[in-house]
């Protein structure tokens, strides 16, 4: 029950997303690009589910072993590592999205009055933020963030 309920919710949710993506792909003209995007979403969903299982399985196995096995072998270090690994799984989803989604790897579009850390780091004078300052005014070239 430790792993079954959350895994069921995740599989159900991602299955609904895949079904919606496939329905939307059928409504559009089927071309190479839409099939490739559909394949990327499917890969991302599978990776997300596998990452959840990899992160939480050691914790679930240890919990079952502690409950029904000999808990004398479960030292504090042995109990802590799977728990920390499982709870760090919340950081995996953004990393997976970043690695598997092309649009998340480009600098965000500039909006007047805002400046993001990503646009400052990537601000190489190219892309949607080129030639703009934080207030939306034109600038002469790439600028560095002043401390």
TrEMBL record:
- The segment(s) forming the G-protein coupled receptors family 1 profile domain are 1-97
Q: Which InterPro entries match?
A: GPCR_opsins, GPCR_Rhodpsn, GPCR_Rhodpsn_7TM, Retinal_BS
What Pfam families does its record include?
7tm_1
Q: Tell me a Gene Ontology molecular-function term this record carries.
A: photoreceptor activity
The record's listing under SUPFAM superfamilies reads: Family A G protein-coupled receptor-like (SSF81321)
Membrane topology, record value:
Multi-pass membrane protein
Please state where this protein is localized: Membrane
Name a GO CC annotation attached to this entry. Answer: membrane
- Name the domain of life: Eukaryota
| Keywords assigned | Chromophore, G-protein coupled receptor, Membrane, Photoreceptor protein, Receptor, Retinal protein, Sensory transduction, Transducer, Transmembrane, Transmembrane helix
Instruction: Specify the protein name.
Output: Rhodopsin-like
Write down the species: Acanthaster planci
**What is the gene called?**
LOC110983891
